[in-house]
């Protein structure tokens, strides 16, 4: 019995199968690392946003625009929302919109397992906490739902870029 032939797709094939042009700001699915720690993670999340058809919501800290510019390896205009300097107030404002669900990625009681998270059907913001301390207690009150990423190993969590990417793919219905 011989192994099946694997045919990889060329860049030209991939372009033909994907959307004809990059999206403008869809504002339907956002990932929000509101307490960023490492600029490399923002660039990784920006790339994932493009792949999943999502937007990135970040605070306008002095180093963030440069981190996004360096992380944008696609060299196309990316969808970025600036949250201002008060992430908790920004979340409260977003939650006031009738069509918005604010989802926190956090280890918490009554959290939904990532595998059980359905794709987003309305405007959804996936909030990511600080890499060492998570989502601050004052921001937890602004969440409609919490999702956790189960882990088998000894670590307590994944880094923000990996966790955000996993959740984005699930919310976008791509996994």
From TrEMBL:
Under InterPro entries, the record lists: Alpha/beta_knot_MTases, rRNA_Methyltransferase, SpoU_MeTrfase, tRNA_m1G_MTases_N
tRNA/rRNA methyltransferase SpoU type domain ranges (all copies): 37-169
Provide the GO MF annotations for this entry: RNA binding; RNA methyltransferase activity
Alphabetically list the UniProt keywords: Methyltransferase, Transferase
Which positions are tagged coiled coil?
A: none
Which is a GO BP term held by this UniProt record?
A: RNA processing
Q: Which domain of life is it from?
A: Bacteria
User: What protein name does the entry list?
Assistant: tRNA G18 (Ribose-2'-O)-methylase SpoU
* Native species: Kribbella italica
């Amino acid at each position: 019995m011989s192994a099946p032939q694997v045919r990889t797709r060329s860049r030209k094939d991939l372009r033909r199968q994907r959307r004809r042009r990059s999206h403008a700001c869809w504002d339907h699915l956002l990932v929000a690392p509101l307490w960023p720690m490492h600029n490399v993670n923002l660039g990784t999340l920006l790339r994932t946003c493009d792949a999943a058809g999502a937007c990135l919501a970040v605070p306008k800290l002095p180093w963030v625009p440069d981190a996004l510019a360096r992380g944008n390896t696609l060299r196309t205009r990316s969808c970025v929302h600036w949250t201002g300097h008060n992430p908790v107030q920004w979340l409260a404002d977003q939650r006031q919109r009738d069509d918005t669900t604010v989802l926190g990625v956090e280890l918490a009681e009554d959290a939904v397992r990532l595998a059980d998270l359905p794709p987003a059907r309305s405007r959804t913001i996936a909030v990511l906490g600080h890499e060492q301390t998570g989502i601050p207690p004052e921001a937890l009150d602004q969440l409609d739902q919490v999702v956790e990423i189960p882990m088998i190993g000894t670590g307590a969590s994944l880094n923000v870029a990996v966790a955000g990417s996993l959740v984005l793919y699930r919310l976008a219905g791509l996994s």
